[in-house]
Amino acid sequence: MPTPHYKAYTSHNFRTIPQLQSFSDAHMREIKTTSYVAPFKTNNYVIDELIDWSNIPDDPIYTLTFPRRELLKPDLYDKVAAAVDKDLPKEEIGIVAKAVQRKLNPDPSGQSANIPVRAGHKLPGVQHKYKETVLFFPKAGQTCHAYCTFCFRWPQFSGLSQAKFEADASAPVVEYIRNHPHVTDLLITGGDPMIMSAKVLAGYVEPFIDGPDTLHTIRIGSKSLAYWPYRYTTDPDADDILRLFERVVKSGRNLAFMAHFNHPVELSTRAVEDAIRRILSTGAQIRTQSPVLQHINDKSELWSAMWRRQVDLGLVPYYMFVERDTGAKHFYALPLIRCYEIFREAYGRVSGLCRTVRGPTMSATPGKVQILGTTELNGEKLFVLTFIQGRDSEWVEKPFFAKFDPDATWLNELRPAFGQNRFFYEMELDEILRGRLSTID
Question: 325: which residues sit within 8 A by CB, 6+ positions away?
């Protein structure tokens, strides 16, 4: 088989994709119209090796990567379509599209509140929500091999500049971590850091290798294993990437590759098997995560199959998330009770080695809130919840209760149980978000 060469497709050249030549003009128009709002990028691996073109439009990987009108509510789609039908200049269509994007909650879960302040100024390209973990957004990593249509970081790619997180260099982040010795973990994220060349990535990573001893773990968040595994096998600098990983491990730090897999088919190719084997050979560990998504993986048998396959390949199942309240949430979201049922059924089908996974979890403004189940007390049906992570670590592992709501899809749709007006953490959360109380310093 010839060495594959990466080819990207976006809204500018998607009409050249061979498999789309049989699509109707109306279908192509819907892709183009939706792409003004929903960032669109895919590549030849996704197209040739992952999508089942006999199952369009229902194929899960097609749905994950190609814009479709259902990603927008009808009234919002119609606004953009009207501008397109009038053949307005691209700039004017863009103005309409930006207005629609701003209605899609481009700052979910209070991400802007996570930016730390250094010397009286916000530290660009950094988030610090949980005491032990800092997120770092390298400027050169603010794209991906392909865009997931459910992605909660879609504003990073859409031109909404006020929603963009990016840093030019690592030095200010190293200094920040040095001044916050309780920070043990760095998560390099984006976008996707693995879109960068080995040389550019090394320029961002190596200062942390030589950084403060209090930094124990470097994490890399990436979808590349699912969407372009050749990054680690046949790309020209694949070996250089692996040597960089080895340098992190040899420095005495743990390297955790946080891989995003949304469906078992993403684990089915020889290319991904080879890539996983090569990454693990460096001493890095690979942990996996995904939201539970309607139209993609909303069946428990898919999750149990995915977890078993991951363990077979040497991966560690880590998180099942609830789809965040942003972008195309109306298309992908499931009621919280259904998320819990899927998790429980899948969890019951797998061995203990797969049960490292935690979920279903809402990565919400106050923290990572896990749905533990339901119960009934004093004749009232309730959700049982707990914090896996919180803006205040004192909240962690404290069970709390919410009134059962069969339609709720996110934390802000739940109400406290037992006649309480607020959840136990809300008053303190208000103080944190106003900047009057810091749980970081």
Answer: 105, 108, 109, 333, 409, 410, 412
